[in-house]
Amino acid sequence: MTNPLRGEVIRLYKNLLYLGREYPKGTAYFRERLKTAFMKNKDVTDPEKIQKLIDRGDFVIKELEALYYLRKYRAMKKRYYEPEH
Amino acid sequence: MSARVLVGVKRVIDYAVKIRVKPDHTGVVTDGVKHSMNPFCEIAVEEAVKLKEKKLIKEVVAVSCGPQQVQETIRTALAMGADRGIHVEVSGKDYETLGPLQVSKILAALAKKEEASLIILGKQAIDDDCNQTGQMTAALLDWPQGTFASELAFEADKLKVVREIDGGLETIKIKLPAVVTADLRLNTPRYATLPNIMKAKKKKIAMVKPADLGVDVSSRLEVLKVDEPPTRQAGVKVETVEDLVGKLKEAGRV
């Protein structure tokens, strides 16, 4: 019996894995953490709980995107703009 | 408004990579180094896509000049929301000497061919830091230019551009067609997510050769030497105030 949310979870994992390629501490570090986080919840069967966990994953995606943007923005600002006094 | 916007995107060494100069001082090491889209080009793409989402323009075309690998950069632009791409094939020796003037000529020729009414570019690339392509493109086309844009808005048949200048902002109104170059604060570029990159593979990338556009890409510039920036001198620790004052006097600061 395959869970109808199985595809959703795989999609989330793939998207996070892709985002991890740019992680400041390295891809390997990120992948390890990602796997641990997913494995921790591998026995969850309640659809409602799975949906909650997926929502949390989607939130993490948003956070990572914001982190990468800010990191880049700060680097550009430091390189190309005079420090404000 | 049913205009077409041309956006130039450049593939550069990723901003987070530590740049290494080749031992023979002819350039920087690019083999096996992570590349990505120039951050200012991302801002340019985002602005064009936003204009499209507001239905102020009809189509966003992403252009890049270089070898096969620049298609990845074009693909990123397509994932961000550009409609189609144009890959101008320049490789080998020509790519090594490809500078702002050559790219400007290509962009100007493409703008005419595609009947674009607006060109949006990044203000400069983080690899050569030339900050010339937008200005030269405008000059070659004899179009008005809005450089260092931090805000962009259509007003009737004109374009209002707020520019970042020393110590403040300058607001100008320019006629279309025009060339705009994006500064850092223009917008927040969206992330090219994996699903969007996949979807972007279905979008078309046309291949063009500079010769097809009637552009000569030979350069008259010669790079004599590329050097690392000077390393910062180490500081010294002082024990007492007297020591500090003494050292400052020695250095002629007080």
TrEMBL record, chain B:
One of its GO terms (biological process) is fatty acid beta-oxidation using acyl-CoA dehydrogenase. Keywords: Electron transport, Mitochondrion, Transport. PROSITE patterns: ETF_BETA. The keyword Transmembrane does not apply. One of its GO terms (cellular component) is mitochondrial matrix. InterPro entries: ET-Flavoprotein_bsu_CS, ETF_a/b_N, ETF_b, ETF_beta_N, Rossmann-like_a/b/a_fold. One of its GO terms (molecular function) is electron transfer activity. Residues 25-217 form the Electron transfer flavoprotein alpha/beta-subunit N-terminal domain. Pfam families: ETF. Heterodimeric electron transfer flavoprotein that accepts electrons from several mitochondrial dehydrogenases, including acyl-CoA dehydrogenases, glutaryl-CoA and sarcosine dehydrogenase. It transfers the electrons to the main mitochondrial respiratory chain via ETF-ubiquinone oxidoreductase. Required for normal mitochondrial fatty acid oxidation and normal amino acid metabolism. ETFB binds an AMP molecule that probably has a purely structural role. The electron transfer flavoprotein serves as a specific electron acceptor for several dehydrogenases, including five acyl-CoA dehydrogenases, glutaryl-CoA and sarcosine dehydrogenase. It transfers the electrons to the main mitochondrial respiratory chain via ETF-ubiquinone oxidoreductase (ETF dehydrogenase). Belongs to the ETF beta-subunit/FixA family. Heterodimer of an alpha and a beta subunit. PANTHER family: ELECTRON TRANSFER FLAVOPROTEIN BETA-SUBUNIT, ELECTRON TRANSFER FLAVOPROTEIN SUBUNIT BETA. This is Electron transfer flavoprotein subunit beta.
